[in-house]
Amino acid sequence: MIHSVGALLERYSAFIMAASCFFTVLASWETEQWTIKGILVAGAIICSFIGISDVKKYKPRRN
């Protein structure tokens, strides 16, 4: 069980980070701190792309 949880975290950790950045942006949308919002939006986009590449990397290959 522990091994499978570690594998899931290794595989989907970028998606978790992207989701946390996205939800933080949504929660702080009404504030006037545009710099922080821009950094968090960029982080959500970049982490999403990293997550997609991680999933492709760990996808089992068919022979």
Describe this structure in words.
The chain is mainly alpha-helical and 63 residues long. Helix content is 81%, strand content 0%. It contains two helices and no strands. It has helices at 2-27, 34-58. It is elongated.
What are the SSEs and their pairings?
Layout lengths: L1 H26 L6 H25 L5
Helix pairs in contact: 1-2
Short recap of the structure:
Helix content is 81%, strand content 0%. The chain has 63 residues and is mostly helical.
User: From the helix content, strand content and strand pairing, which structural class follows?
Assistant: mainly alpha
Percent of residues in helices: over 70%
Shape: elongated
- The counted number of beta strands is 0
Radius of gyration: 15 Å
Number of helices: 2
Low-confidence stretches: none
User: How much strand?
Assistant: under 5%
* Order of helix and strand elements from N to C terminus: HH
State the end-to-end distance: 28 Å
Mean pLDDT: 81
Sheet of most strands: none
List the main descriptive attributes of the protein structure presented here.
63 residues; mainly alpha; elongated
